[in-house]
C-alpha cells in the first residue's frame, strides 16, 4: 500500500516501520457513513485494516494508529477483551508517541490529540476539541458544525435528511427529522449542510 498520498509526509517513515514490523494488511476504501476505519479478522485467519479515503491526512493518520492498536492488541490477547478497553488505550498511546510532533501535526491538532490520548474514546468524533481541530483541515467547504446553527434553523444531514434544530440537551442538540417528526440527538461537532442554501 502506498501511503504517501494519505498521511502527512513526515509520518511516512514511522508508518512504514509499523506496517513492516507487524506485517499489517491495510487497504483504503471509498467513504463510509458509519465509520472511518476498522480492523477485522476473517474466518480463514486473515487480518485486515480498512480506512476511508476521504479523510484529511491528519485524521487518516490518527484513524490508522487507532486501527493498528486494535490489531496489535488482538494479536496479544485475542478477542477476549473489550475493544476499547485498557489494553487498547495503552497500545494506542504507545504507538502514537513517535508521531506527536509539530513536524507531523499542526499545533492545534497536536495539542488536542495529546489530551485525547490521556483517555482515548472509541471514536475521535466523540472528542469535541479534537474533532473540531481535525474538521478545520477538511476540504468540505460547504459543511459546518451543527453548533453554529441557530435554534429553529433547518439543515441537511448526510446530504439527504432534513432536520430542524430544536433545543440543547446537556452537551448535545435535539433535532427533529422533518420526514417523520422524530427527535434525534446530535453531537455539536456534527458536520451538516445549510438546507436553505442547498435549495437555491
Write the layout of secondary structure elements.
Elements (H helix, E strand, L loop, with lengths): L11 H11 L3 E4 L7 E5 L5 E6 L4 H21 L8 H11 L10 H10 L11 H8 L8 E2 L8 E4 L3 E9 L2 E6 L5 E4 L4 E4 H5 L1
Helix pairs in contact: 2-3, 4-5
Give a brief rundown of this model.
With about 200 residues, this protein is α+β, with helices and mostly antiparallel strands. The protein has six helices and nine strands.
Structure overview:
This protein is α+β, with helices and mostly antiparallel strands and 200 residues long. It has 2 domains: 9-135, Zincin-like, CATH 3.30.2010; 144-199, SH3 type barrels. The protein is built from 6 helices and 9 strands. A hairpin with a 3-residue loop joins strand 5 (154-157) and strand 6 (161-169). Helix 2 (57-77) crosses helix 3 and helix 4 (107-116) runs antiparallel to helix 5. The termini are far apart.
**Secondary-structure element series:** HEEEHHHHEEEEEEH
Overall geometric form: globular
Q: Roughly how many Å apart are the termini? A: 42 Å
Report the biggest beta sheet as strand number plus sense, adding barrel if it closes: 6 strands, antiparallel
Just give the CATH class of the largest domain: Alpha Beta
Note the beta-strand portion. 15-25%
Top keywords for this entry?
9 strands; six-stranded antiparallel sheet; 200 residues; single chain; three-stranded mixed sheet; SH3 type barrels; globular; alpha+beta; 2 domains; Zincin-like
Amino acid at each position: 500500500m502506498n501511503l504517501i498520498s494519505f498521511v502527512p509526509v513526515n509520518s511516512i517513515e514511522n508508518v512504514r516501520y509499523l506496517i513492516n514490523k507487524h506485517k499489517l494488511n491495510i487497504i483504503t476504501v471509498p467513504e463510509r457513513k458509519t465509520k472511518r476505519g476498522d480492523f477485522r479478522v476473517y474466518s480463514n485467519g486473515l487480518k485486515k485494516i480498512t480506512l476511508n479515503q476521504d479523510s484529511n491526512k491528519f485524521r487518516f493518520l490518527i484513524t490508522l494508529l487507532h486501527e493498528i492498536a486494535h490489531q496489535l492488541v488482538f494479536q496479544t490477547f485475542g478477542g477476549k477483551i473489550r475493544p476499547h478497553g485498557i489494553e487498547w488505550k495503552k497500545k494506542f498511546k504507545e504507538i502514537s508517541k513517535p508521531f506527536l510532533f509539530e513536524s507531523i501535526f499542526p499545533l492545534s491538532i497536536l495539542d488536542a490529540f495529546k489530551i485525547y490520548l490521556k483517555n482515548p474514546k472509541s471514536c475521535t468524533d466523540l472528542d469535541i476539541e479534537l474533532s473540531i481541530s481535525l474538521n478545520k483541515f477538511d476540504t468540505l467547504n460547504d459543511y459546518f458544525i451543527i453548533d453554529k446553527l441557530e435554534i429553529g434553523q433547518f439543515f441537511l444531514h448526510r446530504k439527504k435528511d432534513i432536520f430542524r434544530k430544536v433545543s440543547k440537551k446537556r452537551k448535545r442538540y435535539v433535532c427533529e427529522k422533518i420526514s417523520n417528526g422524530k427527535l434525534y440527538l446530535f453531537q455539536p461537532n456534527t458536520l451538516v449542510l445549510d438546507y436553505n442554501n442547498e435549495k437555491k
